[in-house]
Amino acid sequence: MGGPALIINPGDGLFLASFFGFLLSLPLSLFVIFWVSMVLVRRRWAVILGAFIGAFIGLLAILGWVDTLIFDTPLPNAQVGATFFGSLFLCSVLGLVGGMLTDWIVARSESRRSRRQTTLLPE
User: Fold this and answer.
1) Euclidean distance between CA atoms 28 and 34, whole angstroms
2) What is the per-residue DSSP string for 18-34?
3) If you ran DSSP here, which 8-state letter would residue 74 be given?
4) Global pTM?
5) What is 51-86 written as a DSSP string?
6) In contact, 74 and 5? CB cutoff 8 Å
7) Residue 73 class from Cβ within 10 Å (0-12 exposed, 13-18 middle, 19+ buried)?
8) Pairwise pLDDT comparison (25 vs 11), residue with the higher score
9) Among 31, 65, 67, 70, which Cα is nearest to 51's?
């Protein structure tokens, strides 16, 4: 294995498996995080964006681990089916985590803004 390569080969089976795993994870993670954040925050677009960024980080992690994003040769004995399901799982989980973290940050900032300062009235 050589040094950093940063090679993306769209015709490679491992790239296609990880990309389609990423694409199939998006509806699942985006729908679930939209449904979860419906009650807490008003800015749902930020939560959806956080979920997408989390899933994209999962795609980059799979490509760096299995394919030629970091090294110039793919991982030895890497199989296309295992890469697909690994990408599907990792991108779904990281999409949910990214959406939940964004949901937490947005809800926390909105709750600070919506609090009123109370003053004690003299008796």
Assistant:
1) 10
2) HHHHHHHHHHHHHHHHH
3) P
4) 0.81
5) HHHHHHHHHHHHHHHHSTTTBSSPPTT--HHHHHHH
6) no
7) exposed
8) 25
9) 31
Looking at residue 81, its amino acid is G
pLDDT single digits (tens) 22-47: 999 999 898 888 888 777 677 788 88
- Higher pLDDT among residues 107 and 57, named by residue: 57
How far apart CA 62 and CA 21 sit, in angstroms, is 10
For the record, the structure tokens of 58 come out as 């999962």
Would you place residue 121 in the very low, low, confident or very high pLDDT band (cuts 50, 70, 90)?
low
* Residue 98 and residue 106 in contact, taking contact as beta carbons nearer than 8 Å: no
* Residue listed under structure tokens 């939560």: 47
Of 30, 35, 41, 56, nearest to 104 by C-alpha is 41
Identify the residue whose tokens are 């985006």. 30
The whole-number pLDDT of residue 85 equals 96
